Amino acid sequence: MGGANPVAKLGAALFLAAVLLLSIDWVSATIALALELVLFCFAGLTLRRFFLRTWPVLVAAPLTGVTTLLYGRASGEMHLQWGLVQISDGSIDLAIATCIRVLAIALPAVVLFITIDPTDLADGLAQVVRLPHRFVIGALAAFRLVGLFVDDWRAMSLARRARGLGDQHVLRRFLGMGFAMLVLSIRRGTKLATAMEARGFGALPHRTWARESRFGRRDAALVVAVCLIAIAAIVTSVATGNWNFIIGGGRESVTA
């Protein structure tokens, strides 16, 4: 799975997220998360790298569940009520479903994007999805400049601090640095666009590519596996009566 086409990874992550967002119930999220954990074994990641990249999600999901537990919609038997805090059977079920659903949506996106190279993604979007190559190459060039943006911000902050301008008026300093970075970004973008045009980028309606991007059997297998995970989650949830279609107005409207 780690060597699959970036377009397949992107499509799989978006499709799974879209399906899981249709309902808020713990059954479909649990089934999807369990099958995703099996799929992660073929991602080519070590446990250390997996936890280093996914720890923000592993921390944010329980915090989201706790917030939903304390301030979610109250229904059923009330267990605790103190000011705005209302813990009931409904808020407990919603908190569990929300926590598992955050994990089921975010973890595949993080795992799939870990092994994506920006250049390979640009090649796939232009050659497989057939997006305009001028837009794809421009987006890739902009993405490559993100690291320079961070370095420029740090250098400018140190320079202003050395001049005695960085210790007071935090908001004014932030706005001044933001405007300076905007001017610098426009100048750098203009120079980069001129350089790319001089080298022939976008000169012809059809261009050649240094690396060919193909959508093969392994990529199709990844998409099919994700589709099966989504189908299994939906079927199990509907069969057990836990499907809670959001667009339909929740479980009450489905039952009616």
From TrEMBL:
Compartmental location: Membrane
Classification via InterPro entries: ABC/ECF_trnsptr_transmembrane, ECF_transporter_component
Pfam families (UniProt xref): CbiQ
Membrane spanning residue stretches: 50-71, 92-116, 131-150, 220-241
PANTHER family registered for this protein in UniProt: SLL0384 PROTEIN
Origin: domain of life: Bacteria
Membrane topology designation: Multi-pass membrane protein
GO cellular component: plasma membrane
Protein keywords: Cell membrane, Membrane, Transmembrane, Transmembrane helix
Protein's name according to its UniProt entry: Energy-coupling factor transporter transmembrane protein EcfT
